[in-house]
Fold this protein.
Amino acid sequence: MSSHDPDKVKDLYHTLHSHLPSEPALRVKTIENLLVEKGYLDQQTIDNWIEVYSEDIGPKRGAQVIARAWLDQEFKQRLLTDASEAIDDYGFLGKATAHLKALENTDSVHNLVVCTLCSCYPFSLLGMAPNWYKTAAYRSRAVREPRAVLKEFGVDLDDQVEVRVYDSTAELRYLVIPQRPLGTEDYSQQQLAGLVTRNSMIGTDRDLAKNMGG
Amino acid sequence: MDGIHDLGGKQGYGKIDVDEAEQAFHARYEGVGWTINQTTRAPGMSIDWWRHIRELTPPVDYLTRPYFDQWAMTQLIAMIDTGQLNLDEVLSGDITPLHASPPGMSIADVHRATQKAGVRFDRDVEQSPKFSVGDQITTRCYSVSGHTRLPGYAQGKIGIIHERHGAHLFPDACAQGDERAEHLYSVKFNSQTLWPEDKQTNNWIYIDLWESYFVD
């Protein structure tokens, strides 16, 4: 049972801070060893979690969903109506995506996702969040100067384009549907998926035509 | 809690490292920090109490220590708090192993666990929602020392109800062990109502907020 006692927690931080090694990798190793010795964790489990989130669960999943939405109007409508239901077609529904909302970019609207209070992210669809998404710089600035943030990412928005920043304060998670680049009429679903960047599904990338190559 | 975690709109944090290598983990310990959190959380522990433990990270550590190093520490404290580990054994290093350890997880087990973690937070409640789409609301100036999901930058501000989401578990109460749900809304704020210095008229900030966060 949890104590729900913040004072107890503050004392624990204080006590453990001076007890554990300071260097991050060493501190995590010490905690890992404690949990392994206690029996909560083993090396095989750690290796497999790292492998799954490095190889299988990542932005390629999201890209697959976006590419289908570009090709299949009915699927796109389902994605916009209930994104959790739609991604379940692929078995992608899971960690942090039970209340997923899709946000569609258009010529006149650009969407950007942030979590100012922690680092909420649709893990089962996009995998591990980038480090920058979790930094104080991104979390503080995305809601205050989104256009300056976008500019740093190389997205130069016309003043006429409306910016919508979504701060993930509840258990809803957000997926940006970027615009399909012009000139991709002949592309297969797989080729289209290859154009979709992780950042474009968070909203820090916009024009995907640059990925079309020669 | 008006803490260091409440970063929205704070100034002085500098540029974003937009050239970071795009990979899941940049060092093994990051993957270990992630795994610890995905596999050892006590059954029934609320995400809200966990987040509050995370928010209670000493401010200097919060801003300077790497993310997964902080997550590992937060989870260690959560496990001591729930009694999954004893502080004395952590300090002395004299660990008493569990009678029955959870079995190791295969690749398929990890996939199953990820899917199983898709838990829902909406609940049926008897109360009807007080607000409708298009209504103007004012958020409260909310001085609570505990957990809340009303960001500081959106307190005492006027917004418009953009969408209703039904009732979801209310974090402020859940973090104190009182599991109850309340109507949740997506509220849109014009950037100029949040940041008077903003010259742009077409920046909108959408925030998911519970009914208790609004002035009646």
In short: Residues 67-82 of chain B form the longest helix (16 residues).
